[in-house]
Amino acid sequence: MSFKRFDKSLCKAKALNPAAKVVAFEPAKRTIRYLMENIAENNFDIDAENIALSASQGKATFYDTVVDHQTSASLNPAKEKNRTSDTTGILEYEVVVNTFDNYLKEKNISKVDLIKIDVEMHEPEVIKGMQACLSGGLLSMIIEVLNDDMGRQVSGLLKDYGYMCFSLMEYKQMKQVTVIEVTDEKWNYFFCQPQVAEKLKAYIV
Predict the structure, then answer these.
(1) What sign has the CA pseudo-torsion 76, 82, 85, 88?
(2) What is the domain extent for residue 172?
(3) How far is CA 109 from each of CA 70, 112, 127, 141, 160, rounded to the nearest angstrom?
(4) 75-81: long-range contacts at Cβ-Cβ below 8 A with a sequence spacing of 24 or more?
(5) Predicted pLDDT of residue 182
(6) 90 part of a folded domain
(7) Within a 13 Å sphere around the CA of 135, how many CA atoms are in the beta-carbon half?
(8) Which of 99, 155, 156, 186 is the most core-located residue (most Cβ within 10 A)?
């Protein structure tokens, strides 16, 4: 496998499980181009959608950086406009947004096993747009939490759905937690139903 300037997790997921159906949502102009190049070069049948997920449908302003390899573009203006270390400037452009629930309906997708939400402080809005999916099955989620306020919002949105929460640790381990907060730069949390946790008990410490 070879990759060009792009988060490798999607392509690695496909390589580890060729039978998996993988869909990527990427609104950033440059990043979607890199993603498409990686998909083509590695001959993966990953669906790349040049849209953003949010709590509503339509269009929204997207905040990007001018540097070639960005890692923090977001629909949340606070993520980019309040960057104290930024010396390059911010790009603002319009992107198409959709809810996860509506996307599944449009594509006639009836089952989703896992979704990774890493949208730079826009995670609560994505979760608001997937309430039907959360109510209807055993969807598991990996969610990035960049600050404690985001953690509280995510907890509040998921509290009625029976999810267990685990802090993702090194060496393929995870620890159950009741409070979602940023500690020691551990930002990724795994949410799943008890049935799924039972299957993963060998990884729980």
Answers:
(1) positive
(2) 51-203
(3) 31, 8, 18, 17, 24
(4) 75/27, 75/119, 75/122, 75/125, 76/119, 76/120, 76/121, 76/122, 78/121, 79/120, 79/121, 79/122
(5) 83
(6) yes
(7) 7
(8) 99
Query: Does 31 reside within a domain?
Result: no
What is the CB neighbour count within 10 angstroms for residue 66?
11
Model pTM?
A: 0.89
Mean pLDDT per 10-residue segment, the chain (205 residues) = 56 73 92 89 89 97 78 80 59 96 96 93 97 90 94 95 92 91 82 96 94
Nearest to 115 by CA among 82, 105, 36, 104: 104
Residue 85 lies in a domain: yes
Count of the separate structural domains present in the chain: 1
User: 57 lies in a domain?
Assistant: yes
What is the pLDDT at residue 94? 97
